[in-house]
Amino acid sequence: MSTPQPLSYRQLFWQVMHRDLKVAVHNKGDILNPLIFLVIVITLFPLGIGPETNLLTRIAPGIIWVAALLSALLSLERLFKNDHSDGSLEQMLLSPQPLFIMVLAKISAHWLLTGLPIILIAPLLALMLHMEPLAYPALMITLALGTPVLSLIGAIGVALTVGLKKGGVLLSLLILPLYIPILIFATAAIEAAALNMPYSGHIAIISALLVLALTLSPFAVSAALRVSTN
Amino acid sequence: MWKWLHPYAKAERSYQLASTLQPWFAISSIVLLVVGAVWGLAFAPAELYQKEYYRIIYIHVPAATLSMSVYMAMATAVLISMVWQLKLADAAAAAMAPIGATLTAIALITGAIWGAPSWGTSWVWDARLTSYLILVFLYLGVIALHNAFEDKALASRAAGILTLVGVVNIPIIKYSVEWWNTLHQTATISKLSAPSMSSEMLWPLLTNILAFALMIGALTLVRFKNEVLARNAMRPWVRELAAKVGDK
């Protein structure tokens, strides 16, 4: 009997991500519901504050980003929940493979399933809210760089609460404060773009936040998972 | 060099040390609080523009200055517990969280009370106010996580991770909020009195800051002792202690 060849980091990453994507395809509601939630929240704002075009144009970036935060929050729970309840999370922790890579793969899969659809639907929402046409590229760039940060930071909160029965409300308390910087810089970039001002500085900071989250958050997630599965 | 510290890794020794220190902290903080309060509220001169109501500074500033320090102390305790696996540092961190949250809340509430007459509004989305509001949320998250787990040791590890994540985020949040505020320059805020204070006002303020620091120390010791007892409830020394108190 030959000993199994150890997986390379890249193979490991793809395998974990592939598995997560495959599981998600079988539960389409998990992908669709946060997206529907996003659209409904966006619909509520004009109903709540009135259909006046100028007003909507002004607050569109903020509304879209706040709705994106909330929908990211809603979708986060399934990141580790099923794996925790069926025991595969423990198997992952026990395996000799580096947890960092596996966590990163799971978060990437989560972003593909929840962050990417938000980016794709964003222009439509921006259109509905009469957003300034000049700001569209900024909206897309900030969402492309910002939604991965939401998944990365959110994963820490999910990892901390996955073992708890009532983790949902706690999760929002834990991670929404940590989302504030990204919200501030993203909306500021879009507003600057709408005024036809340079916004590369904002983008640079969001990118820096992304790099920081990308390098540090998998460590925090790994540590948190070890606590949660104790 | 750190040999003398080693015996205190034992819960019992630490409990005894906390018991010895507690009266010193308590008495000195009470004395200084009374001195500082009477000095600040009755003897310090009235301010030129704000007349008498500026005196809330003697509560507001100590609470505000120290609320951030408590978070840092908590994070240091967590780091010690993670690096050297000292379970007692966890108890200290758990003891400090509600104290810090209360201080931050006091800072915000006294700020609102002060803001009403001096700024004409209780709340503005000023950078400092906003970042303190977020600090309250961070504290509440840590406390909520402490309470969410049945097992105290597990709760401390989870809350510890969150505390450290918060420490990384505090400067980011602070600067982003400050930057956000300068961008959305809507409310104009008059500066809190003159930047330099007269020494007649400064000394009572410094007295109060020291008094608050000692009070935090005393409260932390009380809560630390409770945490140690709760975490070691099954140990013989705790049972003996409980039996002794019961006999009285």
Rounded to the nearest angstrom, the radius of gyration of chain B is 21 Å
What shape does the CA trace of chain B take? globular
Number of helices of chain B: 7
Q: How big a fraction of the residues of chain B is strand?
A: under 5%
What attributes does this structure have?
heterodimer; A: 230 residues; 9 helices; B: 248 residues; mainly alpha
Structure description:
The complex is a heterodimer of chains A (230) and B (248). With 230 residues, chain A is an all-alpha fold. Chain A has one domain (9-228). In chain A, 83% of the residues lie in helices and 0% in strands. Chain A contains 9 helices and no strands. Chain A has helices at residues 9-26, 28-49, 53-76, 81-86, 88-94, 99-128, 136-161, 167-194, 200-228. In chain A, α2 (28-49) runs parallel beside α6. The longest helix of chain A is centred in the middle third of the chain and has 30 residues, at 99-128. Chain A is elongated. The mean pLDDT of chain A is 89. Chain B has one domain. The longest helix of chain B is centred in the N-terminal third of the chain and has 33 residues, at 11-43. Chain B contains 7 helices and no strands. Chain B has 248 residues and is mainly alpha-helical. The two termini of chain B are 41 Å apart. Classes of the chains: A mainly alpha (230), B mainly alpha (248). The interface between A and B is medium-sized, with 26 and 27 residues.
Short précis:
The complex is a heterodimer of chains A (230) and B (248). Chain A has 230 residues and is mainly α. Chain A has helices at 9-26, 28-49, 53-76, 81-86, 88-94, 99-128, 136-161, 167-194, 200-228.
